[in-house]
Specification:
The protein is an alpha/beta fold and 261 residues long. It is built from nine helices and five strands. It has two domains: 93 residues, no CATH class; 145 residues, HUPs (Rossmann fold, 3-Layer(aba) Sandwich), CATH 3.40.50.620.
């Protein structure tokens, strides 16, 4: 039993991790007659991006500053940013990150008795806002919680409203600004709910469009800091995905800087 368990772990490590690709690249570099350095650099980059030591180092500056209890604020509303969805899901059709954002946003808005504006459409016919409404309907009916959906903004009253045209974070902020202007609020004060890794870029954009933002991050990817050990240097697809997430955000922050935001 013990030997079979160890063998299965070794098999999983070799086959279901980036190790096999990293080894193949290193072997290719030594066998290749040209582009040895390029292939070696690719192998090294693949290795580094797939270990927790590097993924945590990349994510930490984005996430740690927002891993705090939500500050008290005199807010007009809670805004929840979309984050992907899975059409035709049997239940909870928002993606994993978006579901955490939506749940925390609903909890926060209900506890503060504030309107909640969900912002996001996506490119599919079944929009992210549709998925959010379906999810809140599921929650309301199955948990017997009142989650009123509304088309009219009513201050200091919990209700769920939708902005269903935006395709990215810039448009989230721009169309949210239009929503509040249409409802007579020029400089809205908001609780902004999004994933912790996404908060810095989102906050800058909303402030650029005149919002006074109180961050309320969720969907944390990093746990408490732990001592460095051998496992921090073992490649894994999960850590590669976290590295991609962080690099995507850094690219977004760079684009804001280039645009003067």
């Amino acid at each position: 039993m013990g030997i079979m368990y160890i063998l299965s772990k070794i098999f999983t490590f070799i086959v279901l991790s980036p190790v096999i690709f990293i080894i193949a690249l290193f072997m290719g570099a030594f066998l290749a007659k040209k582009f040895k350095k390029t292939i070696l650099l690719c192998a090294l980059a693949l290795y580094l991006l797939s270990i927790s030591f590097v993924s945590n180092m990349l994510l930490s500056p984005l996430e740690r500053p927002y891993n705090l209890p939500t500050s008290q604020a005199n807010a007009d509303a809670v805004i929840v940013l979309s984050g992907g969805h899975i059409p035709k899901s049997a239940n909870l059709p928002l993606g994993a990150d978006a579901t955490k954002r939506a749940l925390w946003g609903v909890m926060l808005a209900k506890s503060k008795n504030l309107p909640l504006l969900f912002s996001g459409a996506g490119l599919k016919e079944y929009k992210e806002s549709d998925a959010f409404l379906d999810m809140t309907h599921e929650l309301g009916s199955m948990l017997e919680i009142a989650l009123p959906q509304n088309k009219i903004f009513t201050p200091k009253q919990f209700s769920i409203l939708i902005e269903d045209k935006s395709l990215d974070t810039y448009e989230n902020a721009k169309l949210s600004q239009k929503f509040f202007k249409d409802n007579g609020i020029e400089n809205p004060r908001i609780y902004l709910v999004t994933s912790a890794y996404h908060m810095e870029r989102s906050k800058r954009l909303y402030e650029h469009f005149g919002f006074k933002v109180t961050p309320s991050a969720t969907d944390f990817k990093l746990g408490p800091k732990e001592p460095t050990n051998l496992m921090n240097f073992v490649p894994n697809f999960h850590f590669m995905n976290l590295s991609y997430t962080a690099l995507h955000e850094y690219a977004g922050l760079l684009s804001l800087k280039l645009r003067g935001i």
